[in-house]
Amino acid sequence: MKPLSEVKPHIRAAHMYNYRGAPEEQRRRGYSYAFHLFTEGHGHMIVNEQVYPVASGSLIFVRPGEGHYFVPAPEDTMDACNIYCDLWCVPQPKQPTFAYQWDDYDPRWLTEQMPCPELDALPTSMSLRPYPHLIELIKQTLAAFNRSGKYTAQAVSACFYSWILQWHEAGSLTQTADYRITRILEQMEAYPEQRFSVDYWCSECGLEKSQFYRLFKQETGMSPKEYALQARMKKAAVLLMESRQSITEIALMLGYDSIHYFSNQFSSVYGISPSSYRMGKGYQKLDRWS
């Protein structure tokens, strides 16, 4: 028996991908370990014939040889950070990562698997919303993998090693997501320009203020005000990059009376002014790969 601390991650691939329901997304098996952290969209994944709902913050862990499908909701797509890796060995050069047709699946290509009760106990599906540091560490792993350097492989391996140990700790303490808070989060993300009061949210989910604050913090790791700001600034960042609207127009669209206040809040979240962000200074393509 091996403890999880003895894994030696070798990252085969790490990238963002937009799942649209294409044929190659709907019936395949992998030869490596796969971790899918969904950042946008809704739908579900089927892993070994079990259905797992997918929303922003959902993590799906697919073990070697498990059949799986990606199924976006109607009229929707799903963005995910994907990491494909070996945990106990370094694969042979040009070793395949998938069999896209199950008839082509060849068990000889499976990565080495060791008896590890801690790894076996990790869930197939888990929300990382209460653990923003784990979401950030996944993104850092992707960023490190896509840089070139003398020690890139070692840096990526170390980053993911830290993530999987911390995920194990979080997974051993996790609780089932509260559907009342999940519904509020979906509304915050869908309508970030709205300025709903805490009283409104409490009436929507039928909770007292103290209960609402406690459950919200438990689910997201932040306060309702902080989460709403993050959602609002995320939409602002998309509009800055994708639209020709002026910064003043974007601020008004998101419910700001003062462009100065909008700029200050944007800078507090992204560490850069809206105008600099639009010009590409400090802009990371990590969240836009497909």
UniProtKB/TrEMBL annotation:
Gene3D superfamilies noted in UniProt: Homeodomain-like, Jelly Rolls
Q: Name one GO molecular function term.
A: sequence-specific DNA binding
Q: Which Pfam families match?
A: AraC_binding (PF02311), HTH_18 (PF12833)
Keywords carried by this UniProt record: DNA-binding, Transcription, Transcription regulation
Q: Give residue ranges for domain HTH araC/xylS-type.
A: 182-280
Q: Which domain of life is it from?
A: Bacteria
- Entry-linked SMART domains: HTH_ARAC
What name does this protein carry?
Answer: AraC family transcriptional regulator
Q: Which organism is it from?
A: Paenibacillus dendritiformis C454
Lineage of producing organism: Bacteria, Bacillati, Bacillota, Bacilli, Bacillales
